[in-house]
């Protein structure tokens, strides 16, 4: 039984006759292949990555498992359409809090078409990408049964300043993620989610070590998804904090050079999260 | 007694009636203050940096010591002109080999004037800056008494491809830094210059650790200068390998964000040098 995922925080969304991702009960996430070249590009990445023996297991787990392509009834009602079948790391969770950070101060690659470069450069300058090395593309933070999720709308998120971004990273791990700017986020889940040997910071540092060495791929316009389950923490269990890289429509070959653009942005994200962990300890 | 330094590998050069840096016998390097705002900008940086107590000593030594400003007879014969008085870390050496690497895939800062941004972006795309995260701005490598220095001309260096850059970093530590492309650089000084606990790689890694944390300054269009003395190695003494950051006309405030642009490029340089050390071990 296919349905539209309700946890999505960024990217094309299905519903209202639009083409977007679908999920099923077996833990799969189906992403329609965009037909402007991006789809085939992303498929080529998943095919290449999933069989590349140079990727260590402790890094591979930061990427969704790829199950090939499936022809499914598209969400826009246009009939059978090719989809990437991927591991769904979010929908299987209970009230997952999710943050999508698009990494890199530059979302375009040197060989891209000129009009694409101009479009990306404009957006990189209008958002925090250029100054901060990444931008938040979306987030939703679970409050409780009454309040449900705090989910700022897309336009609001795209207008985030550096200070808004810092605040969003604090709200993401707070019990009071209100839109009310008078309420200071308490960061009460910072140590459970960001900190500790299995926390998000530790995972990001592992990813960083790999990016200091790997020269196989350059990841443009790729996001780090951060997920955890608040109720799991409140019940004294593991936070389920996990990072996943997503969106590979603009991955190019590294040709022996490290992905300094992704690495720089990743280090900036790490610094901001590290500051939160330190100040909440 | 002021004279024109002969070790300079990049930047404005004095001589032929042009305004450029001067040196004296007391180990000072005098850099004329550029009068388009860059000069006062660089002066402001040195003034601020030299009194900033947040800079640890093991990082401060990577920057030239600043001795204030001096009014000196300009090299272009135009009379008295203000100069920055800096530590000269090169001229006091015997036949120093020098490499200047301008760090960062982006040499422009977000607040710069639009025409300046366009000019920089063009040059970043034409050189290796964009793809590699840095570009070699100049180098000279000492051969021996007969051959003197191998110093590719400025135009040739600006046209370096990524492969040329990799090769230049190998030639920089080779006993046969010939322009003849058939001769493979032997990298015989790689371990003495790049490697070891006091080598250039170790120094770059210390600098990297600081850049992962520091949010005080963002260094645009700034270079890492690498220097060593070949004859010192051949005589069984220390290589004198040293890095110095130079050119601070485009340093801006960090405002709580790390310099991900510099850090990414620095990591790319580190990877290339690390590859040379590993393959020469």
Automatic annotation (TrEMBL), chains A, B:
PANTHER family: INOSITOL POLYPHOSPHATE KINASE, INOSITOL POLYPHOSPHATE MULTIKINASE. The keyword Acetylation does not apply. It catalyses: 1D-myo-inositol 1,3,4,6-tetrakisphosphate + ATP = 1D-myo-inositol 1,3,4,5,6-pentakisphosphate + ADP + H(+); 1D-myo-inositol 1,4,5-trisphosphate + 2 ATP = 1D-myo-inositol 1,3,4,5,6-pentakisphosphate + 2 ADP + 2 H(+). Belongs to the inositol phosphokinase (IPK) family. This is Inositol polyphosphate multikinase. Keywords: ATP-binding, Kinase, Nucleotide-binding, Transferase. GO terms for cellular component: cytoplasm; nucleus. Residues 1-20 are annotated as: Disordered. It is an enzyme of class 2 (transferase). Inositol phosphate kinase with a broad substrate specificity. SUPFAM superfamilies: SAICAR synthase-like. Gene3D superfamilies: Inositol polyphosphate kinase. Its EC number is 2.7.1.140, 2.7.1.151. Coiled coil: none annotated. GO terms for biological process: inositol phosphate biosynthetic process. One of its GO terms (molecular function) is inositol-1,4,5-trisphosphate 3-kinase activity.
């Amino acid at each position: 039984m296919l349905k539209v995922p309700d946890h999505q925080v960024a990217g094309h969304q299905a519903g209202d006759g639009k083409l977007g991702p679908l999920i099923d009960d077996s833990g799969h996430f189906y992403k329609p292949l965009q037909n402007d070249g991006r789809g085939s590009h992303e498929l080529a990445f998943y095919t290449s990555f999933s069989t590349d023996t140079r990727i260590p297991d402790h890094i591979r787990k930061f990427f969704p498992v790829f199950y090939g392509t499936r022809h499914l009834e598209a969400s826009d009602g246009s009939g059978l359409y090719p989809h990437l079948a991927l591991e769904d790391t979010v929908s299987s969770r209970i009230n997952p809090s999710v943050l999508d950070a698009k990494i890199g101060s530059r979302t375009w690659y040197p060989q891209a078409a000129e009009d694409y470069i101009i479009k990306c450069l404009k957006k990189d300058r209008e958002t925090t990408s250029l100054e901060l090395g990444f931008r938040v593309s979306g987030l939703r933070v679970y409050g409780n049964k009454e309040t449900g999720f705090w989910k700022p709308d897309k336009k609001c998120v795209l207008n985030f300043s550096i200070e808004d971004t810092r605040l969003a990273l604090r709200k993401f791990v707070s019990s009071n993620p209100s839109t009310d700017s008078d309420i200071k986020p308490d960061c009460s889940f910072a140590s459970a989610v960001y900190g500790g040997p299995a926390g998000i910071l530790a995972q990001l540092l592992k990813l960083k070590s790999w990016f200091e060495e790997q020269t196989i791929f350059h990841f443009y316009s790729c996001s780090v998804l951060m997920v955890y389950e608040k109720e799991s923490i409140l019940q004294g269990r593991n936070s389920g904090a996990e990072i996943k890289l997503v969106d590979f429509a603009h991955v190019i070959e590294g040709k022996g050079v490290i992905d300094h653009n992704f690495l720089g942005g990743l280090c900036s994200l790490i610094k901001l999260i590290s500051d939160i962990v330190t100040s909440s300890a």
